[in-house]
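Record minuted for completeness.

…
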Amino acid sequence: MFKLNRAGKAFSTVVAGATVIALFGTGTAVAGGLITSAKIKNNTVKSIDVKDNNLKGTDVADGSLGGADVADGSLGGADIADGSLSGADIADGSLSHQDVGAFFVTVKADGTVNASSGGITVTKTGTGEYRADFNRPVATCAVTATVGDSTSAVEVHGEADVTAQFLLTDNVHVYTRTAGSATLADQPFQLTAVC
């Protein structure tokens, strides 16, 4: 009888020990399975609680991020896929011509601006002479002028030259003449700067 009791106690001890090991051995898995979003207090998880480089695009709802969520000046050309921007991207108001570095102005022969990418003014300084103020530095931009009237079906023959205004880096001078003539003459023109 004594031996039987002793064997029963030994068996009970082994079972109890196995139960403790099983509970502690799976403690992490059990805890991971028990913590859900409903059990986390709102606004308590912080950036430090999320492993670096662990969040992906699928973790962010489509359309939930806006310009305010991106630090000013933090995006560059490398962040935008080549060829992914178009005129439609500019027209919808999410981007501007300033963002893609292309500026334009179309001008009548009398110096009146027909249309522009914004912020550009033109002053007629003499016969066939105009000063275009881009209102931003354009000294390192490629600037091109061509004679023509974008608002009329009438064909215009002539030439246009562009020179930089060295004292004012946001200005250029445009000189126009009729085709084949060295004499300056008032002509409508189109001016483009790509920066």
About this structure: The longest helix spans residues 2-25. The helical segments are 2-25, 27-34, 87-91, 97-100.
